[in-house]
Design goal:
Length: 200
Amino acid sequence: MSAAFLAGVVAGYGVALPMGAIGVLIAGLSARTSLRVGAAAGLGAATADGIFAAIAVAGGAAVAGVIAPIAGPLRWVAAVVLLIIAALTARAAFRPPGPAAAGQRPATPWRAYAGVLGLTLLNPATVIYFAALVLGRAGEGGGVLFVAGVFLASATWQLAIAGGGSLIGHWLTGPRGRTLTALVSSLVIAILAVGLLLPA
């Protein structure tokens, strides 16, 4: 097996394994909707990781240099988006189950994929992480295999999170269980959003 592919797998797990706001969001979507929706959201996050890896392979230090000056504003945007998601999740916890309210769009795999892809792309630290790894591998080649390894590793982990969220959702099918998981998810997402704004 290619050394570049294995390096990509390791890098992909390295960025995907820490359970952050995106992981909580994916698990919460699976628990509240379906495994298909949660899995689509997970693939959105994995796609973003693959895009970041491709950008880092193509641009390396130049990309990190461009992103660094706007990392602060991007963190603020990501925090605001996460706080909105947390508020919407908390509000949904107190809605009675049943048909979607008029005008409310139901969660679909495509919307989950696009939403999580967009949110994950707001994380400037990820492209800097991959740029640093690529710079450390300078001259080794195998950029496409590295990106494929990153995507595969991230996708398997995000799908595991979605599966876990779906399993929890099946255990907690009653109104109290759904309310509790939505509130916990909302609280964790809000805490992670505030954490983005605290000094490192």
